[in-house]
Design goal:
- This protein is of the alpha/beta class and 502 residues long.
- It contains 17 helices and 15 strands.
- The strands form four sheets. It has an eight-stranded parallel β-sheet with strand order 4-13-12-11-10-7-6-5. A three-stranded antiparallel β-sheet has the order 1-14-15. It has a two-stranded antiparallel ribbon with strand order 2-3.
- The chain is globular.
- The structure holds iron/sulfur cluster.
- The site of iron/sulfur cluster has 13 residues, from loops.
Length: 502
């Protein structure tokens, strides 16, 4: 005991010395910060409120992380609220997705979709969806039972373990994975899933040194049995009319090699395809790609002027239905992966909620709906979203951010900075460490399966046996006064409005 007293006194002295040093350092910092703030001219707040003004930036920075935990209500946040994210997280983990005590969704809000429960719901079980054939005139058409698939996200935008998990998960769930415009990486192939190879405006992965098509490489890719289809990307939801942007910090040696570009430099693709400047160019390029690859070829775009689809149908009918694209991926103006200018992200391109039914109606009116498969994408990550898209006439739904949540994304919204805390969109090996591709592959597959299973639940409630039997009569949309109207009647009026230019 006697020996312990001096030790205790020594510890107390050390502690008070440390506290004094910390206080002194704090005082010095306040004096220096005060002097800096009153003498700088760039920040008004700091000049007017020296030292205190600095905390504004700090709290603003912290707000990004804390809002979603403490302050935002379940249905409040954008792009995805807590209710949406939680459903995906639970589905991905394979845990219960049922909820107690009633909906937190305001079902009288205009635009809300209400499914029409049948007096005698279907007694069908969880059978496999019916198969759909894409590209009947190709040497190698593609038949699939998948309803929900993984939307285009490039290796580069996403990390190695993220792509690997998506590939393995897609294989387990029997769905396809779109490579995105960044070319084909070994990580896309690792799981053995079906792949859609996307060709962007820079032709990454199929370009020669001058940026033209490398025919040999295209043939090599087409010979891979995993690649089922080719998709020309005309535009994407986050930034219609603007090419892809991959910041130099994310262009590693490996990514540069796969894309055919220099490492460490910003990777910018043109706003449009230099070789496709008209509708005729587009149809000719599609025919050429189909002839070279022997596989279905379609294109992806965000709708703007809907008259484009009238012209497209006329041009196809003029050439014969064989000349049609085998599919159109219709992206929503509020689609989101990828770094994008805020003005385009916020204001360019029609939402899929508006464009999908109108485009489907135009294809149907031209007798091309069966020939051209429609893939809908853009914030369709919950069962009700997918069921709505099927009612509206989509053949498939592509999901990107839902699968990012399944990979562990927490909506920290730093995807373009190489600092993603969950390893999904960073090439920093330290941050990638936490993302185990094998574990996350299970989550990807769980989410895909649960999503489709719950769409089947909606279908059964509406009185039909499977998701693909959902039609417009099975859903209603809430209008301005809070009452609902059948989707069929609502979209017919919309089509009329578009035709008369109102
Ligand atoms: S966690 Fe954040 S940075 Fe990472 S993918 Fe999700 S939104 Fe992007």
């Amino acid at each position: 005991m006697g020996e312990q007293v001096p030790l205790l006194l020594w510890a107390l002295e050390l502690f008070s010395a440390l506290v004094m040093a910390a206080l002194l350092a704090l005082v010095v910092w306040v004096v220096v910060a005060y002097w800096q703030d009153v003498h700088q001219t760039r920040h008004t707040i700091r000049r007017n409120f020296p030292v205190l003004g600095r905390f504004r930036y700090f709290f603003e920075y912290l707000g990004e992380f804390f809002r979603q935990y403490f302050f935002a209500m379940d249905r409040e946040e954008l792009p995805f609220n807590r209710a949406q994210r939680s459903w995906v997280y639970r589905a991905a983990k394979g845990i219960d997705t049922t909820l107690p005590f009633g909906t937190t969704l305001d079902i009288s809000r205009p635009g809300t979709i209400i499914f029409v429960p049948a007096p005698f719901p279907s007694l069908a079980g969880d059978g496999e969806p019916e198969p759909v054939l894409i590209g009947p005139h190709c040497t190698h058409p593609f038949e699939t039972r998948a309803i929900v698939n993984i939307s285009a996200m490039s290796f580069g935008a996403l990390s190695r373990p993220a792509i690997e998990a998506l590939s393995r998960g897609a294989r387990k769930a029997g769905i396809w994975l779109n490579t995105g415009e960044g070319g084909l990486s070994p990580y896309h192939l690792v799981g053995g899933c079906d792949l859609v190879f996307q060709i962007g405006t820079a032709k990454y992965g199929v370009r020669d040194a001058q940026g033209n098509y490398d025919l040999e490489r295209l043939r090599e890719l087409a010979a891979l049995p995993q690649i089922k289809m080719f998709e020309l990307k005309l535009s994407q939801g986050a930034k219609p009319g603007k090419g892809g942007i991959l910041p130099g910090i994310k262009v590693t040696e490996e990514i540069a090699r796969i894309r055919g570009i220099p490492a460490g430099r910003d990777s910018l693709s043109p706003n449009g395809h230099p070789d496709i400047r008209s509708l005729d160019d587009l149809l000719e390029r599609i025919a050429w790609l189909r002839a070279v690859t022997g596989k279905p070829v379609g294109f992806k775009m965000v709708a703007g002027d809907l008259a484009f689809f009238d012209d497209l149908c006329l041009a196809i009918l003029h050439r014969g239905s064989e000349a049609a694209p085998d599919f159109i991926t219709l992206d929503s103006g509020d689609g989101g992966t990828g770094a994008a200018p805020q003005s385009l992200m916020d204001h360019a391109g029609l939402s899929i909620r508006e464009s999908l039914p109108l485009v489907v109606d135009k294809l149907a009116a031209a007798g091309l709906k069966e020939r051209i498969r429609v893939i809908a994408s853009g914030k369709l990550l919950l069962p009700a979203d997918v069921a709505w898209a099927l009612c509206a006439g989509a053949d498939f739904v592509n999901v990107a951010r839902g699968f990012m949540f399944a990979l562990g994304c927490i909506q920290a919204m730093q995807c373009n900075r190489n600092t993603c805390p969950t390893g999904v969109t960073t090439h920093d090996p330290e941050l990638q460490r936490g993302l185990d591709p094998l574990d996350k592959a299970e989550r990807v597959a769980n989410y895909a399966r649960r999503l489709v299973r719950e769409v089947a639940v909606i279908a059964h409630s509406c009185g039909v046996d499977s998701p693909r039997q959902l039609r417009r009569e099975h859903a209603r949309i809430v209008t301005g006064i809070g009452y609902s109207e059948s989707l069929d009647a609502f979209y017919r009026k919309e089509l009329e409005r578009v035709k008369t230019g109102r």
